[in-house]
Specification:
This protein has 335 residues and is of the alpha/beta class. It has 11 helices and 9 strands. The chain folds into 2 domains: 66 residues, no CATH class; 240 residues, Aldolase class I (TIM Barrel), CATH 3.20.20. The chain is globular, with a radius of gyration of 19 Å. It starts with 10 loop residues before the first helix and ends in a 7-residue tail after the last strand. Bound molecules: iron/sulfur cluster.
């Protein structure tokens, strides 16, 4: 891995100085624009942190990290079955900023912002602008949870909740921790992988002091996403008492390979993170070229079961609209 950029800035600077132009990205990677068909989408444009670019291989247009972020003309194709809201979340949104999909958990979309734009993201068409919690409806959200005493876990999501400042994030933690019914606060975030410096000392200290159990579900799809800085940051989080899990998406041409999946699990474990979910792609418009036939996914999964100890094998699942849980893939179908 060639360290072709120096990233010694604080995480806020790294977040505001992401690479947003294909020209710059190609220049950093030593790629020639003239050699490749370039696609510039109107929305959900290129955005990639420099720490993530650092992990890409110079001169390789097929780098698995680059392929996750580089817009592709195939995104503009209309493919049957691939829609803008594949999980039907629009109907599960009783208050702006709150999704109630699961019985004992609610999900808060605290921000539409992400450090990175992943081309397969199922929320890439989500209307964040009209669906963000405001300071006024933080009280409404807290009241909603209080009125549903079965809710004992809150999932902070987005966008990426760790793209909020510590001050805003801590205000949410304060409000949620004041609800005695809550036992667990979960954060779904890709930031520790793409800007490891985001796990700064004040954040880890605050999470360590929470009266709730803190679970951080990171999102890492390929072992090349984990360099020494990433491992160090994750191990600091582990030392702060945070339960660390990973969810990955099975992506054609990126990680649909037994050795890559096996190395991913091992690298995560080395970094203190347990593999949790391996998702089949959510069928979102613009992402069909990443999709893998379910039969092939099961074949790969059988290989993974044979290769790794059980505790390193994530659950193979898919999400379906209006199902109150992630659906396990049938491993025995047609066997
Ligand atoms: S970080 Fe997560 S929410 Fe943001 S674009 Fe990537 S997959 Fe989507």
């Amino acid at each position: 891995m060639i360290n072709h950029l120096i990233t010694q800035k604080n995480w806020q600077s790294q977040l505001s100085e992401t690479v947003n132009s294909i020209d710059e990205l190609f220049a950093l990677l030593g790629l020639d624009l003239a050699d490749h068909a370039i696609y510039i989408p109107d929305q959900f444009r290129l955005r990639v942190p420099r720490a993530f670019v650092n992990k890409m291989k110079i001169g390789d247009i097929n780098d698995p990290l680059l392929k996750q972020v580089l817009p592709d003309i195939k995104e503009s194709l209309t493919v049957t079955g691939f829609v803008s809201d594949p999980l039907g979340e629009a109907g599960q949104n009783p208050i702006d900023g709150l999704l109630h999909k699961y019985e004992s958990r609610v999900l808060l979309t605290l921000t539409g912002a992400c450090a990175i734009h992943c081309r397969y993201c199922f929320r890439q068409h989500f209307d964040y602008q009209s669906n963000l919690p405001t300071s006024q409806n933080q009280a409404l959200i807290v009241d909603y949870i209080r009125d549903h005493p079965d809710i004992n876990e809150t999932i902070l999501s987005g966008g990426d909740p760790l793209s909020l400042s510590n001050r805003r994030l801590f205000a949410w933690l304060d409000a949620l921790e004041a609800l005695p019914q809550l036992t667990t606060i979960r954060l779904h975030t890709r930031l520790p992988i793409v800007i490891p410096d985001r796990l700064d000392a004040p954040l880890l200290e605050r999470l360590n002091q929470s009266r709730c159990q803190i679970v951080m579900v990171v999102h890492c799809n390929h072992p090349n996403e984990i360099d020494d800085a990433t491992t160090l940051a994750l191990r600091r989080a582990q030392a702060a008492g945070i339960t660390l899990l990973n969810q990955a998406v099975l992506l054609k041409g990126i990680n649909d390979n037994i050795n890559i999946q096996s190395n991913l699990s091992k690298q995560l474990f080395k970094s203190g993170v347990m593999p949790y979910y391996l998702h089949l792609l959510d069928k979102v418009a613009g992402a069909a070229h990443f999709d893998i036939d379910e039969r092939r996914a099961v074949d790969l999964y059988w290989q993974l079961l044979a290769k790794l100890p059980g505790y390193l094998v994530p659950k193979l699942v898919k999400e379906l609209p209006n199902r109150p849980f992630k659906v396990p893939i049938d491993l025995y179908k047609d066997q």
